[in-house]
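For reproducibility, we list the full input for the heme C complex.
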Amino acid sequence: MTFWSYYVIALTVITLIASTWLLWVTSKKRGNNDTQSSTETTGHVWDGDLTEYNKPLPRWWINLFYLTIVFAIAYLIWYPSADKVEGKGNWSSRSQHDAEKAKADEKLKVLYARFDGKGIDAIAADPVALVTGSQIFSNNCAVCHGSNAAGGKGFPNLSDGIWKFSGEPEEILTTVPHGVNVPEGRQSVMPPMAPLLGSEQAITETAVYVQSLSGLKVDEALATAGGKLYAGVCAACHGADGKGMPLLGAPNLTDNDWLYGSSLEDIKYGLVNGRNGQMPAQLPLIGETEARLAAAYVYSLSQPKK
Ligand code: HEC
Ligand code: HEC
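The corresponding predicted structure, in tokenized form, follows.
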């Protein structure tokens, strides 16, 4: 049973006990006053002589209240609505949920059958598939990549045609099910570069050079010094021309599109601490067909509109 099951059970039991206790205490107070003809007043006086009787709740009303509590307890014995626990009615909220889900899955299976094993570029040409794909995206991917797939700091924009890995259909179909920088997933790690660069000055120079690569205005002297460091330390992954290596997930540094920001602080932070953005594998979460449909939707976003 989950935490929420216990939470609901506790809430129900406490409410029942509390209402019984409240009823019992108030009806006990009736004491010797237990007659409708009692003349005790609350002590409030209005307009000089208007007073208010303090009469106990009528017996029939209290008994009715007790009856509703008994009804609630009996109901819970028949229909416990506590996860897997089946009551006398042989019903549990879990089994009802499972049965309804099985029915829905059966329907989806028919809908999904036509997408099984198809390439995502083929699926992307199917308008019905794209609608389903966009719903799957909203439910599973938008938390990280944004509802319009435009991403955010550390979460790549999937709609702009710029890819860390290449945007080839097979690449997307590898990334989505298996994730990035998780066990079993594809790896794309930049280890901390500071030890290789040495001094704070060298880190600054290299970062400035990276800025210059995408045409940002920089101090030329710093950039020239950084260029030499870049060729020795960074080119192995980002390429001599800075255009990146999709195979390693090493991004193009010349396109003025930044996953982690273009400011000197952002770039230096990455060089000192390294970067290894993680995307959890989606296959265990949504299954093969839904992952394929989401991948097809993402692929369609980056294609030129016809
Ligand atoms: C081992 C390969 C490797 C080396 C060496 C390497 N990088 Fe990276 N770099 C990566 C990868 C992979 C990423 C993407 C990490 C991610 O997405 O989480 C990255 C990301 C970056 C980013 C972030 C880009 C953005 O869009 O925000 C910058 C800037 C960067 N590297 C600069 C450098 C510089 C400068 C050096 C040399 C000092 C360097 N890298 C060396 C692999 C490498
Ligand atoms: C928990 C956050 C998270 C979720 C959920 C998530 N992603 Fe990602 N995704 C990331 C991160 C972070 C990266 C970049 C990893 C890196 O830095 O190397 C990424 C990378 C990608 C890439 C590669 C982009 C490129 O430029 O090559 C694709 C494609 C992608 N995600 C698609 C999806 C789809 C489709 C879904 C939903 C089925 C999804 N993601 C769900 C965080 C997430």
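The chain has a mean pLDDT of 91. Residues 5 and 98 are 16 Å apart (CA to CA). Both points were considered when choosing residues for closer inspection.
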